[in-house]
Design goal:
The protein is of the alpha+beta class. It folds into two domains: 150 residues, Fructose-1,6-Bisphosphatase, subunit A, domain 1 (Fructose-1,6-Bisphosphatase, Chain A, domain 1); 125 residues, 3-Layer(aba) Sandwich (D-Maltodextrin-Binding Protein, domain 2). The chain is 31% helix and 28% strand. The strands form two sheets. The chain has a seven-stranded mixed sheet with strand order 2-1-3-4-11-12-13, with helices on both faces. It is globular. The model has no long low-confidence stretch (mean pLDDT 95). Bound molecules: 1,6-di-O-phosphono-beta-D-fructofuranose (FBP).
Length: 288
């Protein structure tokens, strides 16, 4: 087994375990209990590892004071030194309400491979990896980016589908999109999958401000895709692309707690995951 295979199986083990633990609380209206179950379960999986020494660089949960794996926490008793970015339960609200979109997510890289970031907000734009790099800028107005994207795609702004988190802070962006007749996909939660879907070309653009942990995890997925890495972000005043966030070959595993992006939610010890590695992107079913 090479390192990437080890990272892949460990990441999958973590997310299937986290998803199963969170699922116990799906629909019970207690976000923190669901989050804590996923956190505890992933922590115990990583603590058991005798072939990894895991350094947590992203442990989502600081911003909303949710249970979390701590940035700087070291788990596992030895072997390969790795960086881990983890969102034990992405879309906690969706899990607590038994709505679509809840996932358990873990990324693993060789030591020093992932950006270490606090759980703060990050501005993000993402578009298809089949389009040229750098045609849009996080510094442009939304209107400028839409006009540039429409010109490169040879279409009208009204033919573009743009995803935005439905938040008060995005009122201005949504107003600009409406004035251009763009089709706006307004989501209540889950910009991690939104950014990945834009990079895969399933939607034309993801734009807006969300969590930095979700941004780093999305960058890992995009670092594994063929083509251009069209994800740009602004974190604490610094503009970055995927290469500044992911510096070494990395893997990402996402397991559905509730139905999400074509993955069936956890059910009778069966779970569905999507795994991104430098050589492939695949969907897998496992028994847990
Ligand atoms: O809800 P906020 O504060 O606008 O933060 C946006 C972030 O929340 C999410 O929608 C869900 O994250 P949580 O599971 O931590 O609630 C993320 O996808 C997104 O990056």
């Amino acid at each position: 087994m090479n390192n990437i295979d080890i990272f892949e199986s460990t990441a999958l083990f973590c997310t299937t375990s986290g998803a199963g633990a969170a699922y116990e609380f799906a629909g019970l209206g207690d976000e923190n209990a669901a989050d804590k179950a996923a956190v505890d379960s992933i922590r115990s999986v990583l603590s058991m590892q005798s072939y990894l020494r895991a350094h947590i660089v992203i442990g989502e949960g600081e911003r909303d004071k949710a249970p979390m794996l701590y940035r700087g926490e070291i788990l596992g008793s030895g072997g390969i030194e790795v960086d881990i970015a983890v969102d034990p339960l992405e879309c906690t609200t969706s899990c607590s309400k038994f709505l679509d979109g809840a996932l358990s997510v873990v990324a693993i890289s060789e030591s020093g491979g992932l950006l270490e970031s606090p759980d703060v907000y990050m501005e993000k734009i993402a578009y298809s990896s089949n389009l040229p790099s750098g045609i849009l800028s996080i510094e442009n107005s939304c209107t400028e980016n839409i006009k540039l994207l429409a010109a490169v795609k040879g279409c009208l702004p009204s033919e573009l589908k743009v995803m935005v988190l439905n938040r008060e802070r995005h009122k201005g962006i949504i107003k600009e999109l409406r004035s251009l007749n763009v089709r706006v996909i307004l989501i209540e939660n889950g910009d991690l999958v939104g950014v990945i879907r834009a990079a895969l070309g399933e939607i034309d653009l993801y734009i807006g401000t969300g969590g930095a942990p979700e941004g780093v995890l999305a960058a890992v997925a995009i670092s594994c895709m063929k083509g251009n890495r069209n994800f740009y972000c602004k974190l604490q005043g610094r503009i970055m692309g995927v290469d500044e966030i992911v510096k070494k070959p990395s893997v990402l595993s996402m397991t559905a707690v509730t139905d999400c992006w074509g993955l069936r939610g956890f059910e009778k010890n069966m779970c569905q995951s999507v795994i991104f590695t430098p050589s492939c992107v695949k969907r897998v079913k496992s028994i847990c």
